[in-house]
Amino acid sequence: MGVVDHLRAQLPADRVITDPDLLENHRRDEADLVADGLPLVLVRPRSTAEVATAVRVAAEHGVPVVPQGARTGLAGGANAVDGCLVLSLQRMDRILKIDPVNRIAVVQPGVVNADLGRAVREHGLFYPPDPGSFETSTIGGNTATNAGGMCCVKYGVTTGYVIGLEVVLADGEVLRTGRRTPKGVAGYDLTSLFVGSEGTLGIITEITVALRPAPEPALSLVAVFPTTATAGAAVNEIMASGAAPSLLELLDDVHLRAIEAYRPMGLDTNAAAILLAAADTGARAAADLAAIEELARASGATEVYTATDAEEAAALLAARRLAHPAMEHLAHGLYAQGGLILDDIAVPRSALAELLDGIAATAAKHGVVVGVVGHAGDGNLHPNIVVDRADPESVRKGHLVFDEIMELGLSLGGTCTGEHGVGLLKRGWLETEAGPVGMRVQRAIKAALDPTGLLNPGKVL
C-alpha cells in the first residue's frame, strides 16, 4: 500500500488531498526567492489524534512531513520539499479554554492571532505578541517561529507567553510539556525547546499561553527625522531614559514613499525616517509620551505629531502594518517581475544607528533599493531588498547586499534573525552565528528527536 492509500485508510476522506491545484498552492510561505518543492499529498487534520496518525503513516513510508499554518512566514520555513506530506494545521482552529482566574488560554495551532486577542479581551485580558500578520498568522505558526511583533519592546516575544504544549513527535507519539501554573521548574524546559524549532523537532497541536490584564488604550506619536542615524540615536536616548514605550517603530524614506503610493495616508515623504511611539501604562502613559517627545526633539526630530484620539492612534499603527504589502507593490512597480529579499537582523540597541548607516552604505555601494522598517525599540530591523527576478545580476546583487547586512549585524553583536526564524533563508548564517560547538549541540537534539530526519527537512540545520 502506498502512502496516500495508507493515509486514506486511516483518516476521514476529506482530510487527504491530492488535487494538483491545492498541492501547488501549498508549496511555499511568503518568503521570496527561496526554494520550494511539490508535495505528494496534503493532509488537513482536525485533531491531535489525526496528526499523530498522519505522522506515523509518513514515518512508515519514509515520507518527509512539512507542517504549515497560514503560510505567512518570511524565511521559507514552511516550504514544501518534493514528494513530502504537507500537514496543514489551519483547520485545527478552536480556542479550547479561556481561564480568567489563572490567566491562561488553551488553543489549537490554527487559531488566528487576532482572533485570540479579541476573544480574551472580552475577559479583560491581553495576549501581547502581535506580529505584523496578526490578522492572518496563527498561534501555531507564531509558536513554531517564536514570532515577535510591534509590542515586543515592552512585552517580549512569543516564548515569554507559551507555558505548555502538546506535540506529536517524529514517531507519532504525543508529548505534553510545561504547565498551567504561574510557577513551575520541574525538569528540562522542553516547552522552550519546541518554541522556535520551526517544525523540525515535532508538530505542535495544542498551545497553553499566559495572558495579561488588558492595558489602557495607548497614546501615540510620530517623530520625523532628517536622517536615519538621528532616529537611531533617539531610540537610544528613549530607552536609556527609563520611559516605557509599548511600541517604538522605525520607517525609513523608502517605506514612507512606498506606503503613500500604495495607500495615501498623509505621511511625510520628505523625511529620512520616522519613529512611531506609543505608551499604554495608564496614568503614566501621558508622562512617558511627553518624555519620548522631548527626547526625540533633543535627538534631532524636526517635527513631532501626537495622536489626539484612538482613531488617529489606530491610523498611525495601520501605516506601520502596511509596510510589507507596500514594499511588494513598490517592487512590482519598479520591475515587471519585482521581488523582495527580506532580512530580519537584530542588534543591541546601542548599535542601531551604526547598523542603519551600514545598510544605507551597502545599498548605495551596490546600487540596490533597500527599504528599512523595524522594531527599533528592541534593535530588530527588516531591510527589504528590492530585486528584479528576471535579471540574474539584480538577484545576485540583492543576495550580496543581504549577506553584507547579515555580516554587519553579527559583527555588531547581533543575531541573524530576531523573529522570522531561520527556515531555508538563513541556514548558513545560523552556522556562522552559533559556531561549531553550538551547531553540534543543536544537531544532537535534532537527531535525538527526529533520528530519520523526516520532520521539515532542510530547515534550520
Could you give the topology of this structure?
Layout: H1 3-10, E1 16-17, H2 20-25, E2 41-43, H3 48-61, E3 65-68, E4 85-88, E5 95-99, E6 104-107, H4 113-121, E7 125-126, H5 139-145, H6 152-155, E8 162-168, E9 174-178, H7 190-194, E10 203-210, E11 212-213, E12 219-225, H8 228-240, E13 247-252, H9 253-262, E14 273-279, H10 285-298, E15 303-306, H11 310-321, H12 323-334, E16 338-342, E17 345-346, H13 352-366, E18 370-375, E19 380-388, H14 392-411, H15 427-449
Parallel strand pairs: 2-4, 3-4
Antiparallel strand pairs: 1-2, 5-6, 6-10, 7-11, 8-9, 8-10, 12-14, 12-15, 13-14, 13-18, 16-19, 17-19, 18-19
Helix pairs in contact: 1-3, 8-10, 8-13, 9-12, 13-14
The N- to C-terminal Cα distance equals: 32 Å
Helix content: 25-40%
Rounded average pLDDT = 96
Shape from CA axes? globular
Report the radius of gyration as a whole number of Å.
Answer: 22 Å
Give an overview of the whole structure.
The protein is an alpha+beta fold. The chain is globular and about 70 Å long. Strands 12, 13, 14, 15, 16, 17, 18 and 19 form an 8-stranded antiparallel beta sheet that branches. Strands 5-6-10-8-9 form a 5-stranded antiparallel beta sheet.
